[in-house]
Amino acid sequence: MTDKDKKVRVRFAPSPTGRLHVGGARTAIYNWAFAKATGGDFILRIEDTDPERSTPENTQVILNAMNWLGLEWDEGPLVGGSTGPYFQTQRMDTYRDALERLKERGAVYPCFCTKEELDAKREAAEKEHGGYAGYDRTCRSLDPAEAQARIDAGEAHVWRLKVPLDHGPIEFVDAVYGPMSFPADVMDDMIVVRSDGTPTYNFAVVCDDANMGITHVIRGDDHLSNTPRQILIYEALGFDIPTFAHLSMILGPDGKKLSKRHGAASVEEFRDRGYLPDAMVNFLALLGWSLDGETTIITRDVLCKEFSLDRITKKDAVFDETKLDWMNGVYIREMPAEAWVEAATPWLIRAFCGCSADQEPTDEEAVLGAADIEVRPEWYESLYPLVAERLVRLDEIPEKLAFMFWGDEVKTLDEKSVQKVLLKEGARADEALRACREVLADPSLAWEAEPLQEACRALCEPLDIKPKFLFQPLRVAVCGNMVSPPLFESIELLPREDILARIDNVYNQVFGA
Ligand code: GLU
User: Fold this and answer.
1) What are 131-159's pLDDT values in tens digits?
2) What pLDDT is stored for residue 403 in this prediction?
3) Ligand 1 within 6 A of 21 CB?
4) Which helix (H) or strand (E) holds 355?
5) Torsional sign, CA 122, 125, 130, 136
6) HSE of 367 in the Cβ direction (CA atoms, 13 Å)?
7) Engineered SS bond to 193: which of 14, 79, 129, 159, CB 3.0-4.6 Å?
């Protein structure tokens, strides 16, 4: 079987140290899409060897973010698989086996140099030769019998890779960056296993990738400098070297690496600000990859069919939030109302509770809100056409739809709207409101947007008033301001008594009873 015929196996290998950064999310998306496009397997491996930061909570954060993005893994935590376990801390025996293999192949040696000795050597080298070129290989020439005796006597030691002295440059063809070459003679004999028996980062990654049969390592280019070291480890183990694809950085609009300074930088933050997972996947996929250089809306299905490594660019990508907003709006407009309600639920609950986007309802309020959605999902679905056209992010919902939850009173009456519409000189807003109220109170009228609007419009002629001067006051009386969703479509969704009560309420406030 040639390499080309081998089933593709890729992995996303996050270190669970906190939230999932958008750079990590893009790496995950590329691995996932590449597996889908090639009929391969996508593996999730948790690199949890940092005991301080790799907590179960942090792992859960990553799993949640992956689930939210809809990046299902074929093997990994929760789903298992034939090459598990999928947590590095549970794979210690495999690292021990790999060390045995390296010993058998004469590719490692024990090193007894203490930290103090190494520090002193480094200091001296820095003074004398203008730089430390790495470990000076003192223990490499120890007599094996003597080394064994010292091990048997319990002397602390690490295991170092015996980098071949005649190794030419370390070369590989990166699927993104092309041919790469690193001189091997500057690689020192790196530690593979520490004195406490734990594997070093590069050693663990290579063991895992080899044991999991990974064919393509797609990861951020912050790991590019690890690659030549990892290749030396593959060679020492006698394992096939996978194809590497390193991804360029994601920059903020100021040209600096995207970080918290630029606002949101983690998947969770974008989720909490009301972006849709589909839009997020589409947007992140295009940070460094393109279908044809121009298509911007690329659904998951297309991505999973068309994704290829040869269309990844080595240029750094710039995170353009304006484009993300635009894209999110497109996805909102195109989704079914039912899916919208599901995605928008946290913000619909806030609207129900009278909270703003960044206010958390109390638990009891939230339960009531959720129950309301469950009891009358169609009513919530009919809110969708009211806002879909202009919604950029879901977190705009509480503000835009608050008035739909006010019941029989106008909870926030915008002062500017009162001045510009209701109290506008010569506009006869009081008359307009009284007339509209009378029409809306007529029980023989069907409570539907069109007949209601027509019946109100029919007032224009007898009153000699322009439609605008009739509808604007009504809008302010029902919604509290002049910029709300389509008026009669909104009225239709609310009970007649509430609408009449709001008109009375505002009328009395502004014009006196
Ligand atoms: N655990 C590493 C990280 O989170 C990734 C290692 C790799 O992809 O090789 O940066």
Assistant:
1) 777 899 999 999 999 999 999 999 999 99
2) 98
3) no
4) none
5) negative
6) 3
7) 159
- Alpha carbon of 365 to those of 272, 353, 377, 383, 411: distances in Å? 19, 6, 18, 20, 18
Is the peptide bond prior to 85 cis by the omega test (within 30 degrees of 0)?
A: yes
Instruction: Report residues of the chain scoring pLDDT below 50.
Output: none
Hey, what domains does the chain have and what are their CATH numbers?
Answer: 3-89+250-321 (3.40.50.620), 91-247 (3.40.50.620), 335-405 (no CATH), 415-511 (1.10.10.350)
pLDDT score, position 38 = 98
pLDDT at 4: 64
Q: What is the largest CA-CA distance in the chain?
A: 112
Structure tokens, 231: 């290749």
CA-nearest residue, atom 6 of ligand 1: 13
Residue 143 has φ and ψ, to the nearest 5°, of -65, 125
The pLDDT of residue 126: 84
DSSP label at 293? S
CB 71 within 8 A of CB 29: yes
Which of 214, 219, 233, 266 most suits a substitution to test ligand 1, by most atoms within 8 Å of the C-beta? 219
Cβ of 491 less than 6 Å from ligand 1? no
What the block records as the tokens of 431 is 């008359």
| Strand arrangement of the beta sheet that strand 108-111 belongs to | 108-111, 158-161, 191-193
What is the model's pLDDT at position 1?
52
